[in-house]
Amino acid sequence: SEDDHHTDRKRPNILVTGTPGVGKTVTASLIAEKTGLKHINVGELIAKHKCYDGHDAELDTHILDEDKLLDLMETMFQECADEGVGIVADYHSCELFPERWFDLILVLRTKTEELFDRLTERGYNEKKRSENVEAEIMQVVLEEARESYDLEIVQEVQSNTVEDMESNVERCKVWMEHWIANNS
Ligand code: DAT
Fold first, then answer.
1. What is the architecture, at CATH level 2, of domain 12-171?
2. How many CA within 13 A on the CB side of residue 80?
3. Quick one: how far is CA 90 from the chain centroid?
4. In terms of Cα–Cα distance, which of 4, 11, 3, 173 is closest to 103?
5. Residue 1: pLDDT band by 50, 70, 90 thresholds?
6. Could you tell me which residues are beta bridge partners of residue 56?
7. Could you tell which of 19, 26, 40 is best to mutate to test the pocket of ligand 1, judged by most ligand atoms within 8 Å of the CB?
8. Ligand 1, atom 8: closest residue by C-alpha
9. Rounded to the nearest whole angstrom, what is the distance from the C-alpha of residue 38 to the centroid of ligand 1?
10. Residue 7, C-beta contacts closer than 8 angstroms, at least 6 positions apart
11. Substitution site in 17, 19, 22, 163 for ligand 1 pocket (most atoms within 8 Å of beta carbon)
12. DSSP letter (8 states) at residue 19
């Protein structure tokens, strides 16, 4: 059946998640480089395929067309699985995805001052910056991950420095080698 299809996969799928600015995209692209997993930047995919369902005037943001995004991603996941290719996806939310897609949920965490500086550098206005810094302090994405996935596959790691990033990438590489050994 489709629900146990993940047991047939030759390579694992990883989701890198966390508050905007914690380093999801740079970390996921390094993981892809070091492991041969295919990187999917979900935010970029949404923009490229215009997975929008209107516009929120108050927040001045697009409203996500979840069905369109999930259909698109389901096809990509299926094709990759058929070709024996694993995926490392990155996105600032995780509850919308089917649980069966992922074998590891890597939640990146960043200290307040560091995240504040990164979001300032990114050009976020005060409101958007403080909303995101607060969400990081309240560990919104970590709680979301813990509610949406098996606790055993949710890993929280620090992403404050370049050394942290390198260690997170190495950790994924080792984790993936174990996954392959245990699933072949
Ligand atoms: P995200 O995808 O989570 O929004 P990003 O990958 O675009 O974040 O990174 C945001 C900025 O922060 C970018 O300039 C790279 C820098 N950065 C990310 N992780 C870092 C880390 N662990 N140490 C130092 N800088 C980092």
1. 3-Layer(aba) Sandwich (3.40)
2. 21
3. 3
4. 11
5. very low
6. 61
7. 26
8. 23
9. 19
10. 183
11. 22
12. S
CA distances, 148 to each of 32, 63, 94, 141, 184 (Å)? 24, 22, 8, 10, 27
With b for 16 or more beta-carbon neighbours within 10 A and e for fewer, the 24-48 pattern comes to bbbbbbbbbeebebbbbbbeebbee
Give the nearest ligand 1 atom to 18 CA: 3
In the sheet with 104-109, reading across from the earlier edge strand, the strands are 38-41, 87-91, 14-17, 104-109, 154-158
Pocket of ligand 1 (CB under 6 A): 18, 20-26, 90, 118, 159-162, 164-165
ipTM: 0.99
The rounded Å distance from CA 22 to ligand 1 centre is: 5
- Asked whether the CA dihedral 124, 106, 93, 137 is positive or negative, the reply is negative
For 103-144, how does the pLDDT look when each residue is reduced to its tens digit (9 = 90+)?
999 999 999 999 999 999 999 999 999 999 999 999 999 999
Tell which atom from ligand 1 comes closest to the C-alpha of 19: 3
